[in-house]
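Changelog note: in this version the structure field was regenerated for every chain. One regenerated record is shown below for reference.
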Amino acid sequence: MDQEKPLCQYKDPENYNCSCEANESGLCFWHDPSTDKKGPEIKQALEEYAKSGGLLRGISLKRANLKEIDLVNHNKKTGYDFSYADLYRADLEGAHLFNITFDHASLMKTDLRYANLNCASLQQANLLGVRWSHSKVENLRIGKKLRQEYLAHQALKEKNITQAHDYFEQAEEIYRDLRKHAEREGIFAMAGEFIQKELTMRRMQLPKFSTKRLTSKVIDLFCGYGEAPVRIIGISILIIICCAFIYAMTGLNYQGSIQTFDSSASLTDNFSLYLSCLYYSVVTFTTLGYGDFTPVGVSRTVAAVEAFTGSFTIALFVVVFVKKMTR
């Protein structure tokens, strides 16, 4: 009786198994990292393997010559799944990779010049050193965080500051490369997202309680590093509402009478007072200054701070909005 041929022992973290015949290493040709895949015949072999339904997840394609390969899953809603694959220094120049999945894959120093990556998924992939020049990246999905970000935050939890800073630096480099490429391709919405992440990664490398890091955080909160003008409107409304509450508590002078919250007054009267304070807060924030209400006591300090903040915030909104719209 013929001896049953052993199957590939590859099993990825999501419990996908390969059913191909194993070689001496216990892995099949595609999942064995020790097999040489640099030859020109590997391109056609991989295309045929993909079309035959072979397990593409976790395959090892280090330094493989895959120039202009067609890995589009034609007439199917989902593309080929190369999750956990190793494509370190693989040559994918001019490759057709529409709707492909590279989640958790290693694309370190992979050549993706002129490749079609529209609608591709690269979530949790290692994108350090990827060559993006002239590649198509519309609707590219890289997830909320890069792999290096997760590793950096994990290192912070373990109190390994040096390792965390190294991962943050790698993440900054990846976001910078993606941002520059998106700008060259004219995908400015994507470029805006990447520059926010790039500057966030740079901030995370600064000393925790330093002035530079605090300033960077404030800028991020106020306007998302110049990419979120709507955030300025939200903060402005919050400042106006908070200052109105302070005016209601500390009092305003209206026609010689001090207007302030009174616990013995009705809810309607106090609410009417708050609306008046809200009106004064808007006038102060926008520096209109009609003069029908005047601050007294502590309200003067609050009004001065609000007026200064309002002038600065309005100017900031104009700059950010114009930058966003003209780009």
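Spot check on this record: The first strand starts at residue 252 and ends at 254. Residues 42-223 form one domain.
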